[in-house]
Amino acid sequence: MLVDYLCGYDADDNEGKEEDWSEISAEQISALIIAGDALGSDFPISSNKSGGGSDFEDEYSLEAQQQRDEIANTLAQRLKELDNWIALLCASLDVYLMPGKHDPSNLLLPQPPIHPCLLPWSHSFDTFHSVSNPFQIEIDAIEFCLFVELFCCY
User: Fold this and answer.
1) Is 1 a domain residue?
2) How far apart are CA 100 and CA 123, in angstroms?
3) What are the residue boundaries of the DNA polymerase alpha/delta/epsilon subunit B domain, all occurrences included (predicted)?
4) What is the CATH number of the domain that holds 94?
5) What single-letter DSSP state applies at residue 97?
6) DSSP string, 62-75
7) What is the value of pTM for the model shown?
């Protein structure tokens, strides 16, 4: 539904809907900025369980290898879904993707853009921009300076 709205599909088709949830039409949207954690805030899946053995046994056990394989498969699946979703949006508007804490980028600031090989279909569009964190841009004569917080101390 979000992709349809941002791309302008069904913008005037509000049959059977009593409420208009937005005053903004799709024609007024010129860009989408995804500011970190595009793969989800629950990724990567981590486990703090200790097997009761040594660190070496916990790191190189069959269970640890299976968990690493599961994380790699989940990452590949989520990257493919994200690539497809962004590519759909790139057909209609500019998309800016900033890395966050849970994205495949380093955690040192400034974070570099997400590598093109991870989102090959999206990178084939001129309207896709993988950007660093922090990031500064001017869109429609409005200056934006964006920063995705990586750590929060309580």
Assistant:
1) no
2) 19
3) 20-147
4) 3.60.21.50
5) E
6) HHHHHHHHHHHHHH
7) 0.74
Burial class (CB in 10 A: 0-12, 13-18, 19+), 53: exposed
- The string of pLDDT tens digits covering residues 78-99 is 999 999 999 999 988 899 999 9
Q: Which two tokens stand for residue 17?
A: 């809907």
User: Given a cut of 50, is residue 59 above it in pLDDT?
Assistant: yes
Starting at the earlier edge strand, list the strands of the sheet with 94-98: 31-35, 94-98, 128-130
Could you tell me if residue 21 is inside a domain?
Answer: no
- Tokens at residue 15, please? 């049959």
Q: Where in the sequence is the domain holding 135, given as residue range(s)?
A: 30-146
Which residue in the block uniquely carries the two structure tokens 């703090």?
48
Domains held by the chain: number: 1
Q: What are phi and psi of 76, to 5 degrees?
A: -60, -40
Q: CB-based contacts of 103: which residues, under 8 Å, 6+ apart?
A: 36, 37, 38, 39, 114
Tell me the per-residue pLDDT of 120-143, one tens digit each, with 9 for 90 and over. Answer: 999 999 999 999 988 899 988 889
Integer Cα distance of 60 and 45 in angstroms: 18
CA distance 42 to 32: 22
Token pair for 141: 């004569």
Report which of residues 84 and 56 the model is more confident about: 84
User: Pick the residue with more confidence: 150 or 127?
Assistant: 127
